[in-house]
Automatic annotation (TrEMBL):
Enzyme class of the recorded protein, top EC level: oxidoreductase
Protein name: N-methyl-L-tryptophan oxidase
Keywords: FAD, Flavoprotein, Oxidoreductase
Molecular functions (GO terms): N-methyl-L-amino-acid oxidase activity
Cofactor(s) the protein needs: FAD
Chain's gene name: solA
InterPro entries registered for this protein in UniProt: FAD-dep_OxRdtase, FAD/NAD-bd_sf, MTOX
EC number: 1.5.3.2
Domain named FAD dependent oxidoreductase: residues: 7-352
Organism: Paenarthrobacter nicotinovorans
Top-level taxon of origin: Bacteria
Length: 375
């Protein structure tokens, strides 16, 4: 293959990389996207049919502007492609004050102009009789919460990027790259390409590919689908007890009519190259125990399972920005389990870094806050 030159090469075409390719192509850049897999797939953090896309955030009020922007962009992409990307399900949050995740979620809504209601336990049970909610618990209802459709969203990002001129190639592994005086040479198993800049959006595999020591760990997550009776239900989160800093259990109705449910663990660290769809002892039982306790109308016998992963950065924020040692390399990683719903806005942030656009409000994501290269 002869060497070809592009303005930007995007390495990794999951939701963040596909979104970046879309934004860059829309700005008139010549773009090449490369991925060793063929997203959507089951080898990363976007496995399965859906992702919950709520407006509130447990990461802090500073995410509210990004939330508004990402919903604007998803709506824009849906209109351009004629595709339904978000299902407006409404979202219920159940918990007690003192649970870190619950408190942060309520605080983020309170500091925003998003619509929501706070219900005591008795009122919540009357409104959502299919869920077990204790007297001492509080339920927060977010009517504009949505469920993102994974395959449709990634395919829409990629189709719009291609329509705008981007070249996207899957099934092609990147072996590495070299920086030159004029740009970057990217070497793959099929040949080499040159570009002025590259964007690396390989998710949990960033440290492997870039030979960095970004301070994140990769957490294995199991999702299970179950049969449900009746019409689709709102998405729901159940916070851990007061004093806990663990992520909540959560579930939503799927396009298939099934119910997806997950009980995230903490400290279930893996090497991303070891991700497997095989279940481990206790995986299903942990989910079924919470399902029986909280959602007794759902059949606890699973229809299917999905194993995915998310990257947990030590300070709780994404890693987005220039490589600390090269202005020609832009990094996007550390999805923190909420990366999919923000993908449309994250792609815009990454494109802005390529273009040198000043975004002071995104400075908390810069890799330079803690990156050290491996010796």
């Amino acid at each position: 293959m002869s060497e070809q030159h592009y303005d930007v090469i995007v390495i990794g075409l999951g939701p963040w990389g596909s979104s970046t390719a879309w934004h860059l192509a829309a700005r008139g850049k010549t773009v090449l996207g490369l991925d060793r897999f063929a997203p959507p797939h089951m080898h990363g953090s976007h496995g399965g049919a859906t992702r919950l896309a709520r407006q509130s955030s447990s990461a802090g009020a500073q995410y509210t502007p990004f939330t508004k922007r990402t919903f604007e962009l998803w709506d824009e992409l849906a209109a351009k492609t004629g595709t339904r990307l978000l299902e407006r399900s409404g979202t219920v949050f159940v918990g007690e004050p003192g649970s870190m995740w619950f408190d942060k979620t309520v605080a983020s809504l309170g500091s925003s102009d998003f619509e929501y209601d706070v219900l005591d336990g008795k009122t919540a049970r009357e409104r959502f009789p299919w869920a077990r909610i204790a007297d001492e618990e509080v339920a927060v209802w977010e009517p504009n919460g949505t469920v993102a459709l994974v395959h449709a969203a990634i395919e829409a990002l990629q189709s719009e990027a291609r329509r705008l001129g981007a070249t996207l190639r899957t099934g092609e592994s990147v072996l590495g790259w070299d920086e030159t005086a004029s740009g970057i040479v990217v070497n793959t198993e099929r040949g080499k390409y040159t570009a002025d800049k590259i964007v690396v959006t390989v998710g949990a595999r960033a440290n492997h590919l870039m030979q960095l020591e970004l301070p994140y760990k990769v957490d294995r997550q199991v999702l299970a689908n179950f049969r449900q009776v009746g019409p689709p239900k709102p998405a729901i989160y159940f916070a851990k007890p007061p004093g806990s800093d663990e992520a909540p259990s959560y579930g939503c109705s799927e396009p298939s009519g099934e119910w997806k449910f997950s009980v995230p663990g903490k400290g279930n660290w893996i090497d991303p190259e070891d991700l497997s769809q095989d279940l481990r002892p206790g995986d299903l039982e942990r989910i079924q125990d919470v399902l029986r306790d909280r959602l007794p109308e759902i059949d606890p016998n699973p229809v299917s399972t999905t194993v995915c992963m998310w990257s947990e950065v030590e300070d709780g924020h994404w890693v987005i920005g220039e490589h600390p040692e090269s202005s020609k390399v832009v990094i996007g990683t550390g999805d923190m389990g909420r990366g999919f719903r923000y993908a449309a806005a994250v792609g815009e942030m990454l494109a802005d870094h390529v273009d040198g656009v000043s975004r002071p409000e995104t400075s908390l994501f810069l890799p330079s806050r803690f990156v050290t290269a491996k010796a």
